[in-house]
Design brief:
The complex is a heterotrimer. By secondary structure, chain A is an alpha+beta fold. Chain A has 17 helices and 12 strands. Chain A folds into 3 domains: 148 residues, no CATH class; 115 residues, no CATH class; 168 residues, no CATH class. Chain A has a 5-stranded antiparallel sheet with strand order 1-2-4-5-3, with helices on both faces. In chain A, strand 1 and strand 2 form a beta hairpin. In chain B, strands 1-2 form a two-stranded antiparallel ribbon. Chain B is globular. Chain B starts with 6 loop residues before the first helix and ends with a helix. In chain C, strands 1, 2, 3, 4, 5 and 6 form a 6-stranded mixed sheet that branches. Chain C has a 4-stranded mixed sheet with strand order 10-11-12-13, sandwiched between helices. A 3-stranded antiparallel sheet of chain C has the order 7-8-9. In chain C, helix 5 crosses helix 8, helix 9 packs across helix 10 and helix 11 packs across helix 12. Chain C is globular, with a radius of gyration of 27 Å.
């Protein structure tokens, strides 16, 4: 299987190359100057291409050159390497003439370069692409091969606390934009020889590195294969974020629901790996993709497993409820106040009716106005410069909330409904699931304004059928419920204590490796005391 | 990938193919015939229903994983297979339209009396068509989730209604003429015979061997809900009032008064019931599409669904200008059709299977090695 | 492809706009409904007069919330319409009310005596035929016109319609003299085997009306709404009243007593008489039909549990026999109540006690014969009472206060 994949990915590389450079591959020639000139031309010149030519005293002053692109290499390693090279170049080796072939290339690779990872290339293209990755290329005069030194680095963001998925208790590390950092973060958590990283390059222009991570033996082979197959099919010029990839590899194109989970947290990614899911890390973004996922996964936070199970269960139910609130509350309000007033308690009906006296708009329009106002406020909150934040909140809270009610444009109850809806929508841990609820909310509001509860139920039926028809990498989206998998229910709405979750989730993890912990680990005070 | 439906989902499918229309209008019809012994009629109907379910499952077991129409064709030859397929397709289409219309009438009686009927039927057909397009698997899964919901709602509502129940209203048992009890059990038997839709579902099952269990449990669930509604209506309102109510289960929920806040919840209950009705619609539309699609060898299932849906909207909106007639048709006139298609047809198929048994063995022998 | 997409998009947009623009067939905004809290039904000999007590939400919430200036405003308004049928009358309201009458939050329907004498058939039909009306509405009867009842303000409750329902519910819970009769129960009783029903009475006690908010400027209001007697219906028509004592007896026989009280006369050692008040905590009645020869007879098997609330006999309650005498007194009292009610029922020739149903259940075969002339059978049937009265507690003090007083005198 790995062979398969390699050939495919290399073939891919070639095809994308041929798309850009029409002429045949240029091999390195013996003449150093020609090679340097051609490399410069291949990379289109540019001031950030650094070229340093050296001469080695022991090898008849043979010239060799170091090339790298400034800024994407790690300065310190370049400096130490250069120091050692210069030191080496000035040395007069006595043994160099004593019978051994005076091969500068061998000498450099074996004795002189102070870099951990080396490889060699034989064409201008390979050398050029290596430089674009942040490697340093060493070309020796008269030699048909060039040494590629891994000096990738440069300025990247440090590992920080994830901004979008915060926890109270749990690791504070988050993924960064650097692929290597991200893989290392996972490696540090799962120190298993079964951990596999399959690398790919996607995007003709951006040549974005993508790592497919999984645990051999725990992840289902079929799923891993499917992930590879779908990734290999992607043909695009650039990948700037994992969202690009997500839209290419999800099972169904038209759905408001996310079919892949994304996470900024290495611990969440590791937990997914341990349950047999596949993690796709994309260079250039801290958001890694997790597949396959089920609907309920989006309501789970990594913290659920760090806090006590009772509160975790409670919070999960709260989150599920908030999802339904944020999806349904405005439409229920519309349906009940304009179609089924009999369902309200009398005193509530009276106070609602009193508030509505003199409101010029029908409830549906009122709700739409407020919802859209809120969406605008929210978007403004995300986009605006941080400094104007307080101004926006004053305008939002005072002008739109209080003044609109006092002016009799909007009823106070509607403001409450909309604010509650908004707050509920922030409870869902996965932002992309929250977005789904936001969009569906508007559709349901129209249905509620037209047909009342019947409309809402019709909408929900469509939603249910749609959800039941969805699949994430072939796995049913509504998994533990439909199809019903009783053993997985331990970790859906409930979160049972760790000692009771003996098995990995069925149908996600590989079937022949389900046991994850020993039996009888429930704490028993009597025995421990004795 | 061949869709696979678990046994539990099959139970849910059968349950929701039977129940929604049954609990709607039947309780008051049955009580008006059999008075306070209507629940016995319900049990009688359940027993007959179980026998029918058994029979259907036995026939279904003879099918070795082929789609229904293909199976018919392989056993009886192309012409008969196609005829059976088309006949069933037309029957299911007819049934679908009747259900849509009954459902629309109900919705318009209960909540949306001013909304044009064609919009209601349009929405219903749209939802059903959408559900069918998601595939039988999605229908089955939705059916299962709805069943879970129902299983939660029923005990809660019985609990809420508990104080209003007075079992004395059922005494004396067997006060009514036995003939009346038998007559009253007739309408539910007709609807229970809709279990025959199982014949179309079996090929999609993960374990077709367990179809017997599924059909029995599904029928049992369906008929026990009928008996439950009858019992609730009788014990709460007594035999004289129930015939007065067109939709007894709505009235039952309407009298709930728990404190100041939990009252007038019938609209809510009805809303949950909408979901089961939608599943039923989806099952019947699926059956229609399935039969017609395979017997006419159509090319695109998607377009078949769209076509049939448009036809259904046109039929349901235009065919019956007067509402009252539809109600009568749904409960009484339709009954012989139901019985013919759901009982006589399977019996014929069973006889046919018995006759052609030898033939198919020969065929199998020839095809085998 | 693009044409197809366009057409699909067009269709979706079309449906969307169709929904938005015309989608309001059943929609009714909260400020388009006139919420009725009580309905009154009267009969003037030719026409039905239906009266509505309509809420004014803004006024109520200012009454409730205390905010909102500008003088007191009436939270309710009452008006009536006339028609040949009840629905006809209601339809006439459209020509005088700016808002659509909304009955789902109606709490009580008050029926005037004349209308009640004419019959409740129409009313029940209205309630069962329409989904907008509730079957849980409480039915009340009134000797005068229903409209007058609706016009009264009530203390502590701004909406007197809701207040009436609260009164009848709390009355039923605490003294159980009059039952709360929702429409569906009335319908059940009217259509039942006995074809008789009861409706509690509400009346205005006091000569003047309390129909102006100004009355609330003083500590006492000129009149109050009060629950009174029990209207007895035969078929769907009212034939008479039962007084409160008979009503309580009827409540026992109908097994609708939840909690009640009873005053038992007592006598101490020195021959002074006084009264003990017993709070009845629990009561259950079984009326059992029996066949004595060909004669139908009934036995009322009543089990009552009570606790002493007040005693003004000089008694030491620890003394043996005192409790027994209390229990005996209670037994006697309840027995008398039952007999009086039964006699009144027989006198009025209506079986409001559900005896017919019980007979039907017990003797289904003979019932077919009796049901033809149930009135006569019922009239002849004697009632035997078996009351089991049990004192559960004596309250917090063991001796009556008077007993202590007497002791000191010694």
């Amino acid at each position: 299987m790995p062979n398969d994949k390699n050939t495919i990915s290399s073939g891919k590389q070639n095809s994308s190359l041929s798309g850009k450079v029409k002429q045949a591959e240029q091999v390195l020639l013996p003449d150093l100057d020609v090679n340097l000139e051609r490399l410069h031309r291949f990379l289109g010149g540019g001031e950030d291409i650094a070229c340093r030519t050296l001469q080695h005293r022991s090898f008849d002053n043979t010239r060799y050159a170091l090339l790298y692109i400034d800024g994407i290499v790690e300065g310190t390693s370049i400096n130490t390497m250069l120091l050692s090279l210069l030191d080496d170049a000035n040395n007069q080796y006595s043994d160099s003439v004593s019978g051994e072939t005076p091969d500068l290339y061998r000498h450099l690779t074996d004795r002189s370069i102070a870099i951990g990872r080396l490889s060699e290339v034989s064409t201008i293209e390979q050398a050029g692409y290596a430089m674009l990755e942040g490697c340093t290329v060493l070309v020796v005069d008269g030699c048909l091969r060039a040494i590629v030194m891994d000096t990738c680095g440069g300025k990247t963001r440090a590992v920080e606390e994830p901004s979008s998925q915060t926890v109270i208790r749990g690791p504070k590390e988050g993924f960064t934009e650097n692929l290597r950092t991200n893989t290392s973060l996972i490696r540090r958590i799962i120190k298993s020889p079964d951990l596999r990283f399959d690398y790919k390059v996607i995007g003709h222009q951006t040549r974005t590195n993508v790592a497919v991570v999984y645990l051999e033996g725990i992840a289902e082979q079929e799923i891993v294969k499917e992930v590879h197959r779908r990734l290999d099919k992607i043909d695009i010029d650039g990948v700037l974020e994992s969202g690009y990839i997500e839209e290419f590899i999800q099972d169904r194109a038209f759905t408001p629901f996310p079919l892949l989970q994304n996470t900024e947290r290495p611990d969440t990614a590791s937990a997914a790996l341990l349950e047999g899911q596949v993690v796709i890390i994309v260079s250039g973004t801290p958001f890694a993709l997790v597949a396959p996922v089920t609907f309920v996964k989006f309501f789970q936070s990594s913290e659920d497993y760090y806090q006590r199970y009772d509160i975790a269960t409670f919070l999960r139910i709260i989150r599920m409820a908030s999802f339904f609130i944020s999806m349904l509350l405005p439409s229920l309000y519309i349906a009940i106040t304009t179609f089924h007033q009999e369902m309200l308690p009398t005193s509530l009906l009276i106070s609602l009716a009193a508030q509505r006296e003199g409101i010029p708009f029908p409830a549906l329009l009122e709700a739409f106005l407020m919802e859209i106002t809120f969406e605008i406020l929210r978007e403004a909150g995300v986009r605006m410069p941080r400094i104007i934040g307080p101004a926006i909140s004053i305008v939002g809270a005072l002008v739109l909330g209080q003044a609109a009610v006092q002016a009799g444009i909007i009823s106070a109850a509607m403001v409450i409904v909309v604010s509650f809806t908004a707050i509920a929508s922030f409870v869902i841990p996965a932002v992309n699931m929250g977005i789904a609820a936001r969009l569906i909310r508007f559709v349901l509001m129209i249905l509620a304004g037209t047909f009342g509860l019947f409309g809402i139920m019709s909408g929900l039926m469509i939603l249910l059928a749609h959800l039941c028809g969805l699949r994430s990498f072939g796995k049913p989206y509504m998994m533990p419920f439909a199809p019903f998998v009783a053993s997985n229910l331990k970790d859906v709405l409930l979160r049972v204590p760790w000692w009771a979750m003996r098995k990995r989730p069925l149908n996600i993890s590989s079937d022949n490796n389900l046991i994850r912990e020993g039996t009888g680990q429930k704490p028993k005070p009597d025995q421990e005391g004795a | 990938m061949k869709p696979a439906i678990s046994t539990a989902q099959t139970v849910a499918l059968i349950q929701s193919a039977i129940t929604p229309t049954m609990v709607l209008a039947l309780p008051s019809v049955m009580v008006s015939i059999a008075h306070h012994d209507a629940w016995i009629s319900g049990i009688v109907a359940a027993i007959v229903g179980l026998v029918m379910a058994l029979g259907i499952a036995m026939i279904g077991r003879a099918n070795k994983g082929q789609l229904f129409v293909a199976w018919m064709e392989s056993r009886f030859g192309r012409p008969i297979g196609v005829t059976v397929g088309i006949m069933l397709g037309i029957y299911y289409f007819n049934a679908f339209c009747v259900i849509v219309r009954t459902f629309a009438n109900f919705v318009s009686d209960i909540v949306l009396d001013a909304t044009p009927l064609f919009l209601l039927t349009g929405i219903m057909v749209l939802v059903a068509a959408f559900t069918v397009m998601q595939g039988i698997e999605a229908i089955a899964r939705s059916a299962f989730m709805v069943l879970l919901l129902i299983m939660v709602i029923i005990p809660v509502s019985v609990f809420i209604l508990y104080t209003d129940i007075s079992f004395e209203r059922l005494i004396p048992v067997l006060d009514t003429n036995l003939v009346r009890i038998a007559v009253a059990s007739f309408p539910p038997i007709g609807l229970l015979s809709e279990v025959s839709v199982l014949l179309l579902i079996i090929p999609y099952m993960k374990k077709p061997a367990s179809c017997l269990r599924a059909s029995l449990i599904g029928t049992l669930l369906g008929s026990s809900q009928l008996v439950l509604v009858i019992l609730l209506a009788l014990t709460i309102f007594g035999q004289q009032l129930v015939p007065l109510m067109s939709y007894a289960f709505v009235n039952v929920m309407a009298i709930v008064e728990v404190g100041e806040f939990l009252e007038r919840i019938e609209v809510f209950t009805v809303s949950v019931w909408f979901l089961t009705m939608y599943i039923k619609l989806a099952v019947f539309l699926f059956a229609t599409v399935h039969c017609l699609f395979h017997s006419l060898r159509l090319h695109s299932e998607r377009h078949t669904v769209i076509g049939i849906s448009i036809l259904a909207v046109a039929t349901t909106s235009g065919e019956w200008p007067r509402n009252m007639n539809t109600g009568m048709m749904a409960t009484l006139v339709n009954m012989p059709v139901l019985l013919i298609m759901n009982i006589a047809m399977p019996v014929l198929i069973a006889i046919g299977l018995l006759i052609t048994r030898g033939k198919s063995k020969q065929k199998g022998g020839m095809q085998g090695p | 492809m693009s044409i197809r997409m366009k057409s699909v998009l067009g269709a979706v947009l079309l449906i969307f706009f169709a929904m938005i623009t015309t989608g309001c067939w059943n929609r009714i905004e909260l400020n388009e409904v006139a919420i009725t809290s009580a309905t009154g039904v009267d009969w003037d000999g030719e026409n039905w007069i239906v009266s509505y007590q309509v809420l004014i939400p803004a006024a109520i919430s200012s009454v409730m919330g205390g905010s909102g200036g500008g003088g007191p405003k009436s939270p309710i308004i009452v008006y009536s319409t006339k028609g040949r049928t009840i629905r006809d009358a209601i339809m006439h309201s459209y020509s005088e009310s700016p808002r659509k009458l909304f009955f789902a939050h109606n709490r009580v329907v008050v029926i005037g005596e004349k209308a009640l004498q004419r019959g409740v058939n129409e009313l029940i039909d209205v309630y069962f035929r329409n989904s907008s009306t509730r079957e849980t509405v409480s039915v009340l009867a009134t000797p005068g016109t229903a409209r007058r009842i609706l016009e009264q303000f009530m203390q502590l409750q701004a909406i007197s319609g809701a207040g009436m329902k609260e009164i009848i519910l709390s009355e039923m819970k605490n003294t159980s003299i009059l039952p709360n009769i929702p429409v569906y129960q009335l319908a059940m009783e009217v259509t039942g085997d006995a074809k008789s029903a009861v409706v509690p009475e509400i009346f205005v006690s006091g000569k003047e009306d309390t129909s102006s908010l100004e009355s609330f400027g003083t500590t006492s209001i000129p009149s109050k709404l009060k629950l009174g007697r029990l209207a007895v219906l035969k078929g769907d028509k009212m034939i008479g009243w039962m007084n409160r004592k008979e009503s309580l007896g009827a409540a026992y026989l109908r097994d609708s007593v939840q909690q009640s009280y009873i005053v038992v006369p007592c006598e101490d050692d020195k021959g002074n008489t006084g009264f003990n008040t017993i709070h009845i905590l629990k009561s259950s009645t079984k009326v059992i039909p029996k066949l004595k020869g060909k004669q139908l007879a009934f036995t009322a098997d009543v089990q009552v549990t009570g606790t002493l609330m007040e005693s003004n006999c000089a008694q030491d309650l620890y003394k043996p026999g005192v409790i027994q005498s209390l229990e005996q007194g209670g037994q006697q009292q309840v027995g008398i109540l039952l007999q009086e009610a039964w006699a009144k029922g027989q006198q009025m020739n209506t079986d409001i006690f559900g005896a017919a149903e019980k007979t039907h259940r017990k003797f289904p075969k003979q019932w077919k014969e009796w049901s033809k002339n149930w009135e006569e059978v019922f009239k002849e049937a004697p009632l035997e009472t078996k009351v089991k009265f049990r004192m559960a507690r004596m309250g917090l003090s063991n001796k009556s206060f008077r007993y202590l007083m007497d002791k000191k005198e010694k």
